Amino acid sequence: MNTQLLTTRPEVRRSSRGSVNPFKGQHRRRLLRADLLTVLFWASLAGAIALWLADGGASGFSTPAGSFTALGIVAGLAGMDLVLLMLLLAARLPFIDGAVGHDRALEFHRKLGKPALYLLLAHGILIAIGYGMAEGLDPVTEAVNLWVQVPDMWLAYISMVLFIAVVVTSLVAVRRRFPYEFWYAVHLLTYAAVLTSIPHQFSVGGLFAPGTWQRWYWLAACIGTGAALLHNRVLEPIVATTRHKLSVSRVVQVAPGVVSIEMTGRHLDELTGAGGRFFIWRFLAPGMWWHPHPFSLSAEPLQLGPSGSLRITVRNLGKGSSQLARLKRGTKVAIEGPYGLFSTAARSRNHVVMIGAGIGITPIRALLESTPFNPGDATVILRGRSEKELYLGKEIMDLCQRRGATLYHLTGRRPAGVETWLPADATRSGYRLGSYAPNIAEADVYVCGPAAWAQNVLKDARAAGVREEQLHYERFDW
Amino acid sequence: MRIRAAVSATLASAGILLVGWQSGSHVTEAAGSSIGTSAGTTGTTGSTGASAATGSGSGSSSGTSTSGAASGSGATGSTGSTETTTSAAGAGNGSGTFAGSVSQTRFGNVQVQITVSGGKITDVTALQLTDEDRRSVAISNRAAPLLRSEVLQAQSANVQTIGGATVTSDAYLSSLQAALDAANL
After folding, report:
1. How far apart are CA A295 and CA A311, in angstroms?
2. Which of chain A's ends, N or C, has fewer CB atoms near its CB within 10 Å?
3. What are the backbone angles phi and psi of residue A20, rounded to the nearest 5°?
4. How far apart (Å, rounded) are the C-alpha atoms in residues A216 and A139?
5. Strands A351-357 and A332-339
6. Which ranges of A13-152 would DSSP assign to H, the alpha helix?
7. Pairing between strand A351-357 and A443-448?
8. Smallest CA–CA separation between A124 and chain B, in Å?
9. How far is A129 from chain B (nearest CA, A)?
10. A124 lies within 8 A of chain B by CB
11. B131 and B105 Cβ atoms separated by less than 8 Å
12. B142: which chain A residues are within 8 Å (Cβ-Cβ)?
């Protein structure tokens, strides 16, 4: 039993074609915000350099030594600006989250890591060359002199080492070798790296020199970034945790190694709205409270009177997740979120296609429950190695029947040596994504599952004529 | 949509850089013209040399001079000083104390005074040093003795700047050059 049409397609209502698209305005605003963010990103880099120019920085180019120093300063300014932008991307700003989504923001954050490090390294090397040339010293001697003689420079060297450590441990190849906690601890050193870099910007560099425009720019940038981090990553979670007072009410085994964790709390109807369904959970039990778990809701929050309930569904992926199966009833839960754009907030069309694989099916379940569509306008495709891996399959089938969505179960191993997201027999029959969802080109496509699998789905969707802005993909792996 | 973002980002960045560069070139010019303002001398001879030509008025450029100004003045100072050293040998009849011009930097004003005896620089004292904040004071306190001993050894303003104190060094040497000019060294 491999490819199966589980619900008959309800008669397609012709009215949906002529009717207005309720998501058009939301979609236009979201794209505008994303473009605005792109402009702001480049403008801040240009602004950092322009302010330095406005304070007379270009005059350094009159001598060869001065040119090296000036280029070094430009590299340092751009590097510092990038570091602050990276912190802002990781600050869970609602404006960024709502425009491109939490995972896209972090993806961009990751991409900036290496350029920022290269700029900071270039900053150090070029300045050492420039100063050295001015004094007739080789760059290495000059670097040692700077370390020994100039106040605060030793802190800047420490900062450089910390930045290198943070970026190296974040490289994919290195990161896989260490547990999440190690990477997280090293990543926290970013704050130490930024703080140790600031004294030499005051004393040796001119970033905060009184009487310059740069002073105000950098003061605003540093204080703004710090405040954003403090507000969104410390204060907001504390407020959300105390307001909603979540605690574990039940842990149910869904399949071997997969559990649903149900929680009760207050004001849960205020929690999500049209926004994301992705939270970072901390179960406040001994030995567990410090471990953050990123999971999406697998059911919409339900508010009945004063008490409400919500649910996540988790597969036993690692040591941290396996502890979750033994959670005691009444365990308090701290939350950060909701984040993400795997929700109605990302909709742009009337039609919707939802594709989930393995544990990635669970966010699809929550989306299917809440996102608006007319009967016949939605297609749900679940993929697993076997029928047992189609978690929450029964619930999803009920929802599809109730709401008039077409459901496919695609099970079986994928063919050997072929890059595809489909099972072997489907590829043999020549099926593609369009075979299951004929009107996919005019639909929003939500994909959730393992990274390599999801990339194949996205490729197939693009080939079927789906534009980039219609694709909504939530990353699973951190 | 991506095109819209790319075009607007390019235009915005180019515009911002252009504005910065434009206002920067004004600062550089203004600072460049104000470098030569001399604070007069306390010695026997009047002010001489190109750097002192504009007379007194140390506060004429209000706070806009920057590192660009300082390094610019350093460059003119050092070219002038090579001429001074060649002519200093024969002209060794001046004695007394001579104060140099006030060099403005973004970290504060710098002015030095030299004591000349029998055509030789016997002492250099700093009347003002970069003191805008505690960091500047720390840098000044480290750089000034080093610069003084270098100058006494070289008997000219043609000495190396101190690493990490480039702005202070350039201003120091530019003021020193004005003092040397005033002393006819």
Report:
1. 10
2. N
3. -70, 150
4. 32
5. unpaired
6. 15-18, 24-54, 64-89, 94-100, 102-135, 139-149
7. parallel
8. 13
9. 11
10. no
11. no
12. 149, 151
B138 shares contact with chain A (CB less than 8 Å): yes
Among candidate residues A326, A227, A242, the one with its CA nearest the CA of residue A286: A326
Confidence class for position A407, pLDDT limits 50, 70, 90:
very high
Give residues with Cβ within 8 angstroms of B126, minimum separation 6. Answer: B110, B111, B112, B113, B140, B144, B148, B172
> For the segment B45-69, what is each residue's pLDDT rounded down to a tens digit?
333 333 333 333 333 333 333 333 3
Residue A302, both tokens:
């339900």
Contacts of A281 (CB under 8 A, 6+ apart): A292, A293, A294, A295, A312, A333, A334, A335
Complex ipTM, two decimals?
0.79
Distance, in angstroms, between B17 CA and closest chain A CA? 5
Burial letters A357-380, b for 16+ CB under 10 A, else e:
bbbbbbbbbbbbbbbebbbbbbbb
Ordered structural domains, chain A, with CATH = 3-22+347-474 (3.40.50.80), 26-239 (no CATH), 245-339 (2.40.30.10)
Contact flag B163-A145 (C-beta cutoff 8 Å): yes
**Could you tell me which chain A residue has the CA closest to the CA of B159?**
A135
A469 to chain B, any CB pair closer than 8 A? The answer is yes
Which of A154-163, A199-208, A408-417, B59-68 has maximum average pLDDT? A154-163
A444 touches A405 (CB < 8 A): no
